[in-house]
Write a structure and sequence with these properties.
The protein is mainly α. It has a domain at about 40-135. The chain is built from six helices and no strands. It is flat and about 45 Å long. This is Tetratricopeptide repeat.
């Protein structure tokens, strides 16, 4: 069984262009879908969507760590920490702030673990100290 694009690339030189153009078309469709969803979803649904995305990124950091991809784990955890900090600061709901703080603490712990495996002990210790302060409720 041959792929659907096989004949396009064999018979004319525009076949690959069609494939690349198809990727652009998919991106445009995705952008359009995101625009529609942004108009349809309520603010609460948007917040839940972002939380789900950040939680997935946080879980991906753990997967990267378990697979020995420590740099990817560190970088992903840093992104999650930034996301969480932004949403924690810009959120009026106390329960949401606690959720963002919890996600941020998990990411910080994962980043500290990745730093340890990469041999960057000072940065790992910084993350652990921040977690200790947060656990003792010291600002």
């Amino acid at each position: 069984m041959t792929p659907h694009y096989y004949n396009q690339t064999q018979n004319n030189s525009e076949g690959m262009t069609d494939l690349i153009g198809g990727e652009k078309k998919k991106k445009n469709e995705q952008d359009r879908l995101n625009l529609i969803l942004s108009k349809v979803l309520s603010m609460e649904q948007k917040t839940q969507n972002v939380k789900l995305h950040v939680t997935s990124l946080n879980n991906l950091c753990l997967v990267d760590y378990k697979l020995g991809r420590y740099k990817e784990s560190r970088d992903g955890a840093s992104d999650v920490i930034s996301f969480c900090e932004f949403y924690r600061i810009h959120n009026d709901n106390e329960n949401d702030r606690k959720e963002w703080t919890s996600l941020q603490c998990k990411a910080r712990l994962r980043r500290a673990s990745a730093y340890l495996m990469l041999g960057d002990y000072e940065k790992a210790e910084e993350d652990v100290e921040i977690l200790k302060k947060r656990a003792m409720r010291i600002p």
